[in-house]
Amino acid sequence: MTKIFLIIIATFTLCSCATTTGTTTSANRQVLSISGYPSKPDLVVYEYCKADAYGSRLTADTAELTSRYYSVNSPPELGWNYIYLIRDYKIQQTIEKGDTATVYVIYDYMATLNVDKADVYVEDMPFLVEFNLVKERNLWKIAAFKTLPCVYKETALAYLKERFKGAGNQKQEDEMLSLIQKVKTLE
Fold this sequence. Notes:
The protein is an alpha+beta fold. It has five helices and eight strands. The protein has helices at residues 2-16, 41-53, 64-67, 153-165, 170-185, and strands at residues 18-25, 33-34, 37-38, 82-97, 100-114, 119-136, 139-142, 150-152. The strands form two sheets. Strands 1, 4, 5, 6, 7 and 8 form a six-stranded mixed beta sheet that branches. A two-stranded antiparallel sheet has the order 2-3.
């Protein structure tokens, strides 16, 4: 009797709330899409994280690569003075319930860059980010962005070098060069 009761509870739980734990990383994933747009919440978050890791949220010219995954009710992103440097990210768990979903991502975090002050704060640790999604017109959308831009070291260096070109005065140029050197030394 106990086994039958547990099976009924497990079946009911799985039917009402789909959960996956993951192997979706930047090195390994399956592509499922509807007309080029991911059809599952974890894949939407994966694509968002990938575009973010390659710097899409750093400039207005490339922001469309991540903003396409936002809900229409999501607040607009503003400019960023800080950037998280990451080694990688992994979809840890996905929980779907009707027209909402929650996707948990673990970032392998290296440091925070303060671009305006040309400083680096090293904190080598993983951190967990919860992405809440809603269905809009049958597509999964991120309800609101949850974190500063999370970019790869190489992406940050390219961004800083480009920003260095327009530094303007000697003090700013020296600060940018110093920041670039600090980032280069990170492992």
